[in-house]
Amino acid sequence: MPEQTAHSLPSYLNPDELGPWGDYLEQVDRVTPYLGKLSKWVETLKRPKRILVVDVPVELDDGTIAHFEGYRVQHNMARGPGKGGVRYHQDVTLSEVMALSAWMSVKTAAVNVPFGGAKGGIRIDPRQHSQRELERITRRYISEIGLVIGPMDDIPAPDVNTNAQTMAWMMDTYSMNVGVTSPGVVTGKPISIGGSLGRVQATGRGVFVVASEAMRDAGIAINGARVAVQGFGNVGGTAARLFHEHGAKVVAIYDHTGAVYHENGLDIPALSEHARETGGVAGFADADTVTPDEFWALETEILIPAALEGQITAKNAPSVRARIIVEGANGPTSPQADDILASNGVTVVPDVLANAGGVTVSYFEWVQNSASFYWTEGEINERLEAIMRDAYASISATAAEHKVTMRTATFITACSRILEAHEIRGLYP
Ligand code: NAD
Fold first, then answer.
1. Angle, alpha carbons 185-164-282 (nearest 5°)
2. Ligand 1, residues 87, 162, 255: which to mutate, most atoms within 8 A of Cβ?
């Protein structure tokens, strides 16, 4: 049998252009020493189970034919059907979709919902296309990946530049192709065709729940705690509102238009109204303006990056004076920044745990679709909070046991669950 090296790469990847997949491989290497006898199976995590690359030919509104490259990567399905969003972006690459699919495997296992990890994407700039063109592109893409998706196989969801309307087209196309209305084939649908109550706020609510748990562990009361949030959209906006409603002082918000600050706490409902009217937080009357560098250096109890990846780096991490960072965004902190924050005593609640509220309520949506029985918003929020709290408790116990960061502890917990499933199922044939 040929010897396997730590980084034995599939032949379709260029070792010099690993991109985000290279980062993911490093994370797996870092966690392997903690996996005990399960490390025998770790190579499984370093190769996606299945990759489908499809051509998406579409007639544009002007009559010309364009071809787009589409992907669906199923990283791991040992614990259940594949689960993960579909991204429309001109910079989508196979390496990126592979890494995002793997992080979905980690996220679903971290909160212990019975899904595997998958992700999809189309290399396309959606701003260059009309709604009719986007509909045709979506329908052809779903027909092409129809070979591998399905309510018991792999369940797409929204991601960057896709939304509830995109999910409605996906659900309709799949249903037309199989001849049966199949709401459970995608999540993040409009409520009228089987979407779940509470899904829109789920990620921000999950961020708030794990932040509250981390504050309790650190002996910080929510009432009066200072909170700074980057991103005032779905995730950051919901988290800011919940903190405000629970008596915290949301002292700063930083969005694509700038950063605003008030030492006694911003009036979040008024700021939301201002952002809705003007397109962003900049120019809000009852606040001071701060620069990005000043924002990252604010003295707060909680800092929530909820906008983009790559925001906290080796450059600004030394200036961070928050006690706890709760990652609403995917990948906002670089590995170098992680090390700096850890040595400065800043706790980081990592993305794969902190923003898992979205996939958790996606799981509830799928369960409701399977049962054709729908829950109240109160039931959904209650179950979401229970799952997030349990996940936080088991991961913080793992962090204490091994004396590692919450990120490493989340990977230990998640990878152990995935590899236990492999071990107990055994290797076919
Ligand atoms: P959104 O589009 O609703 O909001 C994005 C926010 O980021 C906006 O307020 C925007 O102004 C701000 N922003 C954009 N560019 C910025 C810049 N250069 N500087 C400062 N702020 C900037 O997006 P969202 O759904 O809230 O997602 C935010 C992050 O959370 C993303 O990383 C996303 O992948 C992640 N996430 C979202 C969900 C979900 O359910 N929506 C689930 C998991 C992870």
1. 145
2. 255
List pocket residues of ligand 1, CB cut-off 6 Å: 203, 230-236, 254-256, 306-308, 328-330, 355, 358
Residues carrying an active site annotation: 119
Structure tokens at 383: 């179950």
Token pair for 319: 């200036």
Summarised one tens digit per residue, pLDDT across range 105-118 is 999 999 999 999 99
Closest ligand 1 atom to the C-alpha of 257? 11
The CATH number given to 200-354 is 3.40.50.720
Q: What is the mean pLDDT of residues 252-261?
A: 98
b/e burial code for range 142-163 (CB count within 10 A of at least 16 → b): bebbbebbbbeebbbbbbebbe
Give per-residue pLDDT as tens, 27-82. 899 999 999 999 999 999 999 999 999 999 999 999 999 999 999 999 999 999 99
Q: How confident is the model at residue 11 (pLDDT cuts 50, 70, 90)?
A: confident
Whose C-alpha lies nearest to ligand 1, atom 16? 256
Cα 27 to Cα 42, 146, 253, 400, 420: the distances in Å are 12, 32, 31, 19, 19
User: Are 305 and 346 within 8 A, CB to CB?
Assistant: no
Q: Find the 204 Cα to ligand 1 centroid distance in Å.
A: 11
Same CATH fold assignment for domains 48-181 and 200-354: yes
Widest distance between CA atoms in the chain: 69
Q: Of the residues 86, 111, 203, which should be mutated to test ligand 1's pocket, given the most ligand atoms within 8 Å of the CB?
A: 203
Q: Which atom of ligand 1 is nearest to the CA of 203?
A: 40
To test the ligand 1 pocket, which listed residue (86, 167, 210, 234) has its Cβ within 8 A of the most ligand atoms?
234
Domain positions in the chain are 1-43, 48-181, 200-354
Determine if the peptide bond prior to 33 is cis (ω within 30°).
no
Q: Provide the pLDDT for residue 7.
A: 56
Question: Are the CB atoms for 138 and 173 separated by under 8 Å?
Answer: yes
CATH number of 1-43: 1.10.8.1210
Instruction: Specify the residue with its C-alpha closest to ligand 1, atom 13.
Output: 256
Please tell me the distance between residue 235's alpha carbon and the centre of ligand 1 in angstroms.
7
Domain 48-181 has CATH 2.60.40.3780: no
